[in-house]
Amino acid sequence: MIEIVKKPYSYSFENYAKLDQDILCLSGDLTSSCEIDGFRDRYPKQFLSMGMSEQNMMSFAGGLGLAGFRPFVHTFAVFSYRRPYDQLLASIAYPRRKVRIMGFLPGVTTPAGMTHQAIEDISVMSTIPNMTVLETGDATEVEDICNVADSVDGPVYCRILRGNVPRLFNTPMKIGEIRELNKGTDLLVITSGISTEEALRARSAIKNIGISIQHIHLHTIKPINKALLLSQIEKVKYGVITMENHLIKGGIGSIISDIIAESGIAKKLIKLGLADTFAHGGSRAYLLKYYGLDAFALVKGIEKLMNIKTEINESSLDEVRVEDVHSLSKAEAL
Amino acid sequence: MKNKRSSQEVALGVRRRVFEHSIKNNGGYLSQACSSAEQLSWLYNEELNLGDSVLPMVPKDFDGVPSIKNKSYHTGAGYNGAFKSELDRLIIAPAHYALVAYATLIEVGRMAPEALDMFNKDGSSVEIIGAEHSPGMEMHNGTLGIGLSTGAGLAMGRKIKGEKGEVCVFMSDGELQEGQIWEAIQASVHHGIDNLWAIMDVNSQQVDGAMSAVMDVGDIEKKINSFGALAIEIDAHDINAMKEARKEKHEGRPLIILARSSPYQGMSYLKKRFPRLHYVRFSSEEERKEMNFKISNELQIEPIQY
Q1: Which of B205, B85, B98 is nearest to B147 (CA)?
Q2: In B, residues 141-180, which contact A (CB 8 Å cutoff)?
Q3: CATH class of the domain whose range is B7-57+75-298
Q4: Full-prediction pTM beyond 0.90?
Q5: B213 CA: distance to closest CA in chain A (Å)
Q6: Domain presence at residue A219
Q7: Is residue A39 part of a domain?
Q8: What is the complex's ipTM, to 2 decimals?
Q9: How far is the CA of A255 from the CAs of A198, A221, A247, A249, in angstroms?
Q10: I need a labelling partner for A238 at 20 to 30 A (CA). Which of A85, A168, A282, B76 fits?
Q11: Which of chain A's residues have a Cβ under 8 Å away from the Cβ of B65?
Q12: Using CA atoms, how far apart are residues B184 and A60, in angstroms rounded to an integer?
């Protein structure tokens, strides 16, 4: 049975930030939604309420960075870059301020539809010079993210999971490394964020039919270790499948596609993710299925890549972990 | 190096320098010199508590943008003095006032006159739109409306650290059309950031022409005051009025001095160019000659040789 950790960001941020007065906690009117209400109440001197004004919040954070602070900016992922993109570039990225942007509810992890779903954040953030991009995929990574992000000499964007988060890994997150979750020789599956948990649901079913999968999890999206990834791609016979909670353009699928093209290695690539489409509001399980981002989509991808037909159906996969819409570990039903 | 000359004399020098540069280079940000010369001169010559410049009199060439590999990178803020807790910091928010700001740095002895020959030349740090690495600049403010927020953040940080030095933002009124300015005022008032103050060149002009025709911003003194900051309107060409306004107590909120200016002050000939004053380029050689003659006469200098 998988361990479910309740609000790992909440205690991890507090334990990390309370020790260093140069860390300031900024919130864009999403304090309980970003699990920092406890910190606000216990460490009010390190907390700055910035209201619903992301443009000001980003430039203000840049000014705090100039004054020698390391602001942790908390908002939903989508609000951290769409409206304040100019401020992000001019006030944070260009001058390399040590601002740590904590983006909650990445991709389709929110039922709130297009305006709330950050589906191109990785694409946008990783094309910005000087920016580091990290994505958490389990409770351990959420527990480690503050320390990891804060070790970066420059601005960092992080995709954060909140609420009830499964613990998939038991080793610390280290920037630039990859996690090897399964060793295999037929094909390479590369996942990030919540897509890793999805891919793991298909693991036993795929193993049962004798396909050998090399599965890696990617938490450091920029800077990318090309040599390390190429060595992974070289290991397998048929090709690579990427699966991500993001548009397939500009995310890890594109990164792998670049590596394959630049190296000249002859390997097929199937990119699973949002295929040039916006999403709409709905539950995470529904959205993952509807947009072809779930474990069964991975099985279909494997069939396509290997040009085979398997006997795997949805019932052969591990059960979907469904979170209650109304849960005490969430501030609202978002 | 303070007060060797009066700020009024410095301002005249700034106008002369920007005028000479514009005649020689077939255009320039002339009207900004007219409207803001007293403000920038007063800030550098009298008001701000800045240390001596720590950067070379003749600016270094462009030396790369900030990156983890560019270890020698620094901003142009060193022309405003070292970063010391007791000293003030100046943020020049409308980055297209760079030419006027450079001329002011020269007039107050922080930069050599040759620096203006490097203006807008390839490979130079003396850029047409002030960049982070340009003399006197500390950050990119070319997209108008972001400077006050950064100033507020810097001031908040300095307040938390108990630093004595204050943060001054030089602004322009066109920026008020950007929503971010109002977010910044709102946040500064909410957090009681009173080590922040601004002086705004209210010249009522923007690229397309008069602000009243392009996008009227209404009664800005009333608007800013109703946001909770302290706005005081003065004549931008009256240095004593600036000094008086600056003395106003603004505990728990920022002060914004609205310096109502004329975009032709000291160069009356420019009236002819209304409403296109943002960047003055000569439409013909005749105009250039006439402007050279008329304006140099008003500035009490010989016509510029070009």
Answers
A1: B98
A2: 141-143, 145-146, 149-158, 160-161, 179-180
A3: alpha beta
A4: yes
A5: 27
A6: yes
A7: yes
A8: 0.95
A9: 20, 9, 12, 9
A10: A168
A11: 94, 129
A12: 8
